[in-house]
Protein backbone atom coordinates (compact mmCIF):
# COMPACT_ATOMS: atom_id res chain seq x y z
CA UNK A 1 0.00 0.00 0.00
CA UNK A 2 2.81 2.42 0.80
CA UNK A 3 5.10 1.19 -1.95
CA UNK A 4 6.92 3.76 -4.05
CA UNK A 5 10.25 4.09 -5.82
CA UNK A 6 11.57 6.11 -2.88
CA UNK A 7 10.75 3.21 -0.53
CA UNK A 8 12.57 0.85 -2.87
CA UNK A 9 15.73 2.98 -2.90
CA UNK A 10 15.63 3.23 0.88
CA UNK A 11 15.39 -0.55 1.03
CA UNK A 12 18.23 -1.13 -1.43
CA UNK A 13 20.62 1.42 0.07
CA UNK A 14 20.11 0.60 3.74
CA UNK A 15 22.89 -1.80 4.74
CA UNK A 16 20.72 -3.31 7.47
CA UNK A 17 18.57 -4.97 4.79
CA UNK A 18 21.54 -6.47 2.97
CA UNK A 19 21.92 -9.38 5.39
CA UNK A 20 21.67 -12.32 5.80
CA UNK A 21 20.54 -12.98 2.23
CA UNK A 22 20.95 -10.29 -0.37
CA UNK A 23 18.22 -11.01 -2.93
CA UNK A 24 17.10 -7.49 -3.76
CA UNK A 25 18.74 -7.55 -7.18
CA UNK A 26 16.62 -10.52 -8.27
CA UNK A 27 13.35 -8.64 -7.71
CA UNK A 28 12.44 -6.90 -10.99
CA UNK A 29 10.08 -4.39 -9.36
CA UNK A 30 12.70 -3.37 -6.77
CA UNK A 31 15.43 -2.85 -9.33
CA UNK A 32 13.11 -1.00 -11.73
CA UNK A 33 12.18 1.42 -8.95
CA UNK A 34 15.83 1.89 -8.05
CA UNK A 35 16.75 2.63 -11.66
CA UNK A 36 13.87 5.12 -11.97
CA UNK A 37 15.12 7.11 -8.98
CA UNK A 38 18.73 7.01 -10.19
CA UNK A 39 17.57 8.40 -13.54
CA UNK A 40 15.62 11.14 -11.81
CA UNK A 41 18.31 12.19 -9.32
CA UNK A 42 21.32 11.86 -11.63
CA UNK A 43 20.46 13.46 -14.98
CA UNK A 44 23.88 12.67 -16.52
CA UNK A 45 23.96 9.17 -18.09
CA UNK A 46 27.62 8.67 -17.16
CA UNK A 47 26.79 9.33 -13.50
CA UNK A 48 23.90 6.87 -13.71
CA UNK A 49 26.21 4.15 -15.03
CA UNK A 50 28.75 4.91 -12.29
CA UNK A 51 26.02 4.68 -9.65
CA UNK A 52 24.97 1.23 -10.92
CA UNK A 53 28.61 0.06 -10.91
CA UNK A 54 28.96 1.39 -7.37
CA UNK A 55 25.79 -0.41 -6.34
CA UNK A 56 27.43 -3.68 -7.37
CA UNK A 57 30.45 -2.91 -5.16
CA UNK A 58 28.15 -2.01 -2.29
CA UNK A 59 25.98 -5.10 -2.72
CA UNK A 60 29.01 -7.43 -2.91
CA UNK A 61 30.61 -5.71 0.10
CA UNK A 62 33.78 -4.94 -1.81
CA UNK A 63 36.50 -2.71 -0.41
CA UNK A 64 35.52 -0.61 2.58
CA UNK A 65 31.97 -1.94 2.60
CA UNK A 66 33.25 -5.37 3.68
CA UNK A 67 34.90 -4.20 6.91
CA UNK A 68 33.18 -5.54 10.03
CA UNK A 69 32.96 -2.24 11.92
CA UNK A 70 31.38 -0.57 8.89
CA UNK A 71 28.73 -3.29 8.68
CA UNK A 72 28.15 -3.10 12.44
CA UNK A 73 27.75 0.68 12.34
CA UNK A 74 24.82 0.30 9.92
CA UNK A 75 22.71 -0.83 12.87
CA UNK A 76 23.71 2.18 14.97
CA UNK A 77 23.70 5.09 12.50
CA UNK A 78 20.85 6.56 10.54
CA UNK A 79 21.02 5.58 6.88
CA UNK A 80 22.02 8.98 5.50
CA UNK A 81 24.63 9.47 8.24
CA UNK A 82 26.11 6.07 7.42
CA UNK A 83 26.45 7.11 3.78
CA UNK A 84 28.09 10.40 4.79
CA UNK A 85 30.68 8.49 6.82
CA UNK A 86 31.37 5.51 4.61
CA UNK A 87 30.14 6.27 1.08
CA UNK A 88 32.93 8.57 -0.13
CA UNK A 89 34.41 5.88 -2.40
CA UNK A 90 31.09 5.84 -4.31
CA UNK A 91 30.20 9.53 -4.77
CA UNK A 92 27.32 9.06 -7.23
CA UNK A 93 25.65 6.35 -5.17
CA UNK A 94 26.37 8.34 -2.00
CA UNK A 95 24.56 11.33 -3.51
CA UNK A 96 21.47 9.26 -4.29
CA UNK A 97 21.53 7.59 -0.87
CA UNK A 98 21.81 10.85 1.02
CA UNK A 99 18.97 12.48 -0.94
CA UNK A 100 16.63 9.53 -0.42
CA UNK A 101 17.52 8.42 3.11
CA UNK A 102 17.43 11.94 4.54
CA UNK A 103 13.75 12.36 3.58
CA UNK A 104 11.46 12.75 6.56
CA UNK A 105 8.49 10.44 6.64
CA UNK A 106 5.37 11.10 8.65
CA UNK A 107 1.65 10.58 8.34
CA UNK A 108 0.56 14.09 9.28
CA UNK A 109 -0.40 15.01 5.70
CA UNK A 110 -2.55 11.88 5.45
CA UNK A 111 -4.16 12.64 8.80
CA UNK A 112 -4.93 16.20 7.66
CA UNK A 113 -6.42 14.86 4.43
CA UNK A 114 -8.61 12.33 6.28
CA UNK A 115 -9.76 15.04 8.69
CA UNK A 116 -10.78 17.26 5.77
CA UNK A 117 -12.54 14.31 4.12
CA UNK A 118 -14.48 13.65 7.36
CA UNK A 119 -15.47 17.32 7.42
CA UNK A 120 -16.79 17.20 3.86
CA UNK A 121 -18.29 13.70 3.79
CA UNK A 122 -20.19 13.21 7.04
CA UNK A 123 -23.58 11.77 8.10
CA UNK A 124 -25.48 14.84 6.93
CA UNK A 125 -23.68 15.09 3.64
CA UNK A 126 -23.12 11.50 2.60
CA UNK A 127 -24.62 11.42 -0.88
CA UNK A 128 -21.48 12.71 -2.54
CA UNK A 129 -19.88 10.48 -5.10
CA UNK A 130 -16.31 9.53 -4.12
CA UNK A 131 -14.78 11.48 -7.00
CA UNK A 132 -16.78 14.60 -6.04
CA UNK A 133 -15.74 14.23 -2.39
CA UNK A 134 -12.09 13.87 -3.43
CA UNK A 135 -12.36 17.00 -5.58
CA UNK A 136 -13.86 18.95 -2.69
CA UNK A 137 -11.09 17.76 -0.36
CA UNK A 138 -8.49 18.94 -2.86
CA UNK A 139 -10.16 22.34 -3.28
CA UNK A 140 -10.59 22.76 0.48
CA UNK A 141 -6.95 21.79 1.14
CA UNK A 142 -5.65 24.23 -1.47
CA UNK A 143 -7.67 27.09 0.04
CA UNK A 144 -5.79 26.88 3.34
User: Treating each run of at least 4 consecutive H or I residues as one helix, how many helices?
Assistant: 8
Q: Please identify the structural class as seen in this structure.
A: mainly alpha
- Strand fraction: under 5%
Rg from Cα: 20 Å
**What spatial form do the alpha-carbon principal axes imply?**
elongated
Number of strands: 0
Helix content: 55-70%
Give the count of structural domains: 2
Mean pLDDT: 83
Give the H and E element order: HHHHHHHH
Terminal CA distance reads 28 Å
Regions with pLDDT < 50 over 5+ consecutive residues?
A: none
Biggest pleated-sheet summary? none
Task: Produce the secondary structure layout.
Elements: H1 5-12, H2 28-41, H3 45-59, H4 68-73, H5 79-86, H6 91-101, H7 108-120, H8 130-143
Helix pairs in contact: 1-2, 3-6, 5-6, 7-8
Structural commentary:
The chain is mostly helical and 144 residues long. The protein has two domains: 5-101, no CATH class; 108-143, no CATH class. The protein has eight helices and no strands. It has helices spanning 5-12, 28-41, 45-59, 68-73, 79-86, 91-101, 108-120, 130-143. Helix 1 crosses helix 2 and helix 3 packs across helix 6. The longest helix has 15 residues, at 45-59. It is elongated. The chain starts with a helix and ends with a helix. The model has no long low-confidence stretch (mean pLDDT 83).
Amino acid sequence: MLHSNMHVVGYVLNLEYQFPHNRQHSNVEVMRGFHNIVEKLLPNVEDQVKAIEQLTKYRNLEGEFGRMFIKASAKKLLGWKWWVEFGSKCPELQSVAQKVLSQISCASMCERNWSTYDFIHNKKCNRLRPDMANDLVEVFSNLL
